[in-house]
Write a structure and sequence with these properties.
Layout lengths: L5 H19 L2 H22 L1 E8 L2 E6 L2 H19 L3 E3 L3 E8 L7 H11 L2 E10 L2 E6 L2 H13 L8 E6 L3 E9 L6 H10 L6 E3 L6 H7 L4 H7 L13 E3 L9 E13 L3 E10 L3 E5 L4 E12 L2 E14 L4 E8 L17 E4 L2 E3 L2 E3 L2 E4 L5 E3 L4 E9 L3 E9 L2 E8 L1 E2 L6 E2 L4 E4 L10 E8 L2 E3 L8
Parallel strand pairs: 12-16
Antiparallel strand pairs: 1-2, 1-4, 3-5, 5-6, 5-8, 7-11, 9-10, 11-14, 13-16, 14-15, 17-20, 18-19, 20-28, 21-27, 22-23, 22-26, 23-24, 24-28, 25-27, 28-29
Protein name: Murein DD-endopeptidase MepM/ murein hydrolase activator NlpD
Keywords: Coiled coil, Hydrolase, Membrane, Signal, Transmembrane, Transmembrane helix
Organism: Marinisporobacter balticus
């Protein structure tokens, strides 16, 4: 029920009722009694509904108070409490409207209710100190001392205490200035440091499940593995534990810390390669005449890092410890023989005959074994076409050459294959290197000769 205009309504009602009684002839009997009752009601109403104020902020009712001073006291109490909490001045910039009304004591708002509504509705500003980078505020704290401490903590994050830095500075133009900031934006020191280092207050955590790795976790959340490593610098990717917490927030620092240091280190000097032509080798063949050797030099450099990552390097001094030795490589000029079978076979490699063709250990050995160190050159026994180059069960890395005239040769247990399927080779061309792959008891070449698909004794064609 509204208080405004109620007394006038009661008066009008009384006079209408009085006129009706007069018409009925009963007005003289009851007039005294009714007048007394109505006067008592009017007095009670007027006493209960006293002058008050409806308080509004942006046309939203905050509460009803008896007088403006009551509201001022509530605001001052809130300011005092917030000032104690944030240790700084608290400022209100909202327009507050007071509208006259009438209200009973029961209808007045309680201070606690008004306080809660005010904290939600008021644009509460506090005086603090903002950290600005290139004129843009990135975070704010209560005092200037706190702001400077935050900046020192940011620098410490990228500083190795064992190193002597020439300079440590921010790449951005960083200043600390007094600001009026929204009360919810004022941060404590630890949170301000976290915001600057990570670029966000967001927390996103993954708990490691059985069988997971950094790669599977990164794939699950569509992250780059390198970014996931940056988000978890203290985590060893090879030692993940079940239920271990992994951060999914990739740091994007709001400030760039530059460090300048002088660094001494040794660096190798790569050797040069010089080619000499020789008719002793076929075209396409190469042979090392003099082995090259890297040299060594000592460097004094000025290294600039941005947030711990090398940005630039300027060499200040350089001294040679050992000069490099040039490598000389012979390059063949002789025309190679035709890349087809000649009908005769040459030895495919140098080495010791360690196992012959025929029965051994209860099974037939389909070729001969030629023992030699890993990396020993293997050459085509005759010209022909490579019909297999790859891994073959039992044979390991293997080549098969078709020489025509229903003749094929096999080269097994290689460490390296130098030709591909479909390629034509000439007799004596280097095609592979001795190895120990497949079913093998030591480094050797297993060499087979097959006629019409049937293994025959290679020693009928080559000599060891």
């Amino acid at each position: 029920m509204k208080a405004d205009g109620s007394l006038e309504e009661i008066k009008k009602g009384f006079f209408k009722y009085y006129e009706k009684l007069n018409k009925d002839g009963k007005g003289k009997i009851y007039i005294g009694l009714i007048a007394a009752v109505i006067l008592i009601g009017i007095s009670t109403f007027a006493y209960s509904y006293q002058a008050a104020y409806t308080v509004k902020i942006d046309n939203t009712v905050v509460g009803i108070v008896r007088d403006k001073e009551d509201f001022t006291n509530i605001v001052e109490s809130m300011q005092k409490r917030l000032r104690a909490k944030y240790n700084t001045d608290v400022l209100f910039h909202d327009a507050i409207d007071f509208e006259r009304t009438r209200a009973t004591d029961e209808e007045l708002s309680k201070p606690a209710q008004i306080g809660k509504i005010l904290q939600k509705k008021l644009n509460i500003k506090v005086k603090g100190y903002g950290i600005k980078a290139d004129k843009k505020i990135i975070t704010a704290v209560t005092t200037k001392a706190e702001a400077n401490k935050v900046l020192e903590e940011i620098k410490k994050n990228y500083i190795d205490e064992e190193k002597n830095f020439e300079k440590i500075y921010f790449v951005e133009n960083v200043v600390v200035e007094e600001v009026e900031e929204d009360i919810n934006n004022l941060k404590i020191e630890q949170d301000a440091v976290k915001i600057i280092l990570q670029g966000t207050e967001e927390e996103k955590i993954h708990e490691v499940q059985q069988g997971e790795s950094f790669w599977t976790i990164a794939k699950k959340y569509k992250l780059n593995v390198d970014d996931l490593l940056k988000a978890n610098p203290d985590v060893s990717p090879d030692k993940l534990q079940i239920d271990q917490k992994i951060s999914l927030v990739v740091p994007k620092p709001l400030l760039t810390v530059a460090t300048v240091e002088k660094v001494n280190y040794e660096e190798k000097i790569p050797y040069e390669i010089e080619f000499e032509e020789t008719s002793a080798l076929y075209k396409g063949e190469k042979k090392i005449k003099v082995n090259g050797k890297d040299g060594q030099r000592e460097i004094l450099a000025e290294v600039v890092k941005y947030n711990g990552i090398e940005f630039s390097k300027n060499i200040l001094e350089e001294s040679i410890i050992e000069n490099p030795t040039k490598q000389v490589v012979l390059k063949g000029t002789k025309n190679p023989p035709p890349k087809k079978g000649t009908g005769t076979l040459d030895n495919p490699t140098r080495g010791r005959l360690s196992s012959r063709f025929g029965w051994r250990w209860g099974r037939k050995h389909t070729g001969i074994d030629l023992a030699g160190p890993i990396g020993t050159p293997i050459k085509a026994a005759d010209g022909g076409k490579i019909i297999f180059s790859g891994y073959k069960n039992g044979y390991g890395k293997c080549l098969i050459i078709d020489h025509g005239a229903n003749t094929q040769t096999y080269y097994a247990h290689c460490s390296k294959l130098l030709v591909s399927k479909g390629q034509n080779v000439f007799k004596g061309q280097k095609i592979a290197e001795v190895g120990n792959t497949g079913r093998s008891t030591g480094p050797h070449l297993h060499f087979e000769v097959r006629k019409n698909g049937v293994p025959v004794n290679p020693l009928n064609y080559v000599r060891y």
